[in-house]
């Protein structure tokens, strides 16, 4: 299996590439979408506006891939850019999902460290994930989808926010599965298994 990981200089890709390799897949770091892959991961850390600026040259290709029905996973900022806009700054997101990204309503931001995820509906990506399992977060903003049906898991940090979203073959995690131990590994394995269905 070939897994493409988008390299826009928005995150350190070593951890996520290593995690995917441990699961037995070949990793291909991509700066464009000209290479054929079985699944695609869009990781990111940093500012929404800068992320959207860097993705402009491949925006159409990225949206075409998402519409193709092949497995797609956005991680952290990569998940946020699937929405329409963000309070963090100007720029139009990829608009895969309706809604916007808003600043966390908590006394201490950023939300950094381990916290629980609680699945709220069945999904292939949350298979074998039990309520209360811990994953690793590092963010100040989180999406607020207009359609609550895409929310697959919630996390509480003074208020509830979506920590996993998904519809059909497109998924997003607000946490970093590659830094989340066995729980993160299960989620990545579930994601890779989507390409075998």
What layout of secondary structure does this protein have?
Elements: E1 2-6, H1 14-22, E2 26-30, E3 39-44, H2 48-55, H3 59-67, E4 72-76, H4 77-80, E5 85-86, E6 99-103, E7 111-119, E8 133-139, E9 141-145, E10 151-157, E11 159-167, E12 170-173, H5 181-194
Parallel strand pairs: 1-2, 1-3, 3-4, 4-12, 5-6
Antiparallel strand pairs: 6-9, 7-8, 7-10, 10-11, 11-12
Describe the structure.
A 9-stranded mixed sheet has the order 2-1-3-4-12-11-10-7-8. Strands 5-6-9 form a 3-stranded mixed sheet, with no helix packed on it. The model has no long low-confidence stretch (mean pLDDT 95). It is built from 5 helices and 12 strands. By secondary structure, it is of the alpha/beta class. It has helices at 14-22, 48-55, 59-67, 77-80, 181-194, and strands at 2-6, 26-30, 39-44, 72-76, 85-86, 99-103, 111-119, 133-139, 141-145, 151-157, 159-167, 170-173. The chain has a single domain (2-194), classed as Rossmann fold (3-Layer(aba) Sandwich).
Compact overview of the structure:
With 197 residues, the chain is of the alpha/beta class.
